[in-house]
Amino acid sequence: MALYALALIVNKESAEDRAYIDATIQRFELTIELFWKLLKKILQQKGVEVVYPKDVIKKAYAGKLIDNEERLAMLYDRNISSHTYNQDLADEIYARIKTYVPLLITQMQNLKECSL
Predict the structure, then answer these.
(1) Whose CB has fewer CB within 10 Å in the chain, the N or C terminal residue?
(2) pLDDT of residue 84
């Protein structure tokens, strides 16, 4: 549901509106938080214990649950946007979010197929 909400907002044409950009970044943060926690749960079901988000992403990649390490870049952007606020940096992250959404959608479809 969070990914769907993010996909909806990313496709709107209000890129000049500061509140819109901030809302998009907030939805991105929530989506990435849920994504790494889902991966953690899947890894735990496979007997792999990990605690930290970065380790979860690395183990998921090593275990072929995710298809590339670009997910680390997403996690990095999520961490930066959550812990600091710099408008220029926020604008850069906002631009990258548009490229992350299709990757996340594909990744979630792959995870769904693997769990069937």
Answers:
(1) C
(2) 76
Contact 2, 34 (CB under 8 A): yes
Three-state DSSP at 1 gives coil
Mean pLDDT in consecutive groups of 10 residues from the start of the chain, 116 residues:
79 75 92 93 94 92 83 90 86 92 89 72
Residue 93 has what pLDDT? 93
The distance between the two most distant Cα atoms of the chain, rounded to a whole number of Å, is: 46
3-state secondary structure 29-88: HHHHHHHHHHHHHHHHHCCCCCCCHHHHHHHHHHCCCCCCCHHHHHHHHHHHHHHCCCHH
Q: Is the Cβ–Cβ distance between 21 and 42 less than 8 Å?
A: no
Contact call for residues 48 and 63 (beta carbons, < 8 A): yes
State how far the Cα of 76 lies from the Cα of 54, in Å rounded to an integer.
9
Asked if residues 61 and 69 have their Cβ atoms less than 8 Å apart, the reply is yes
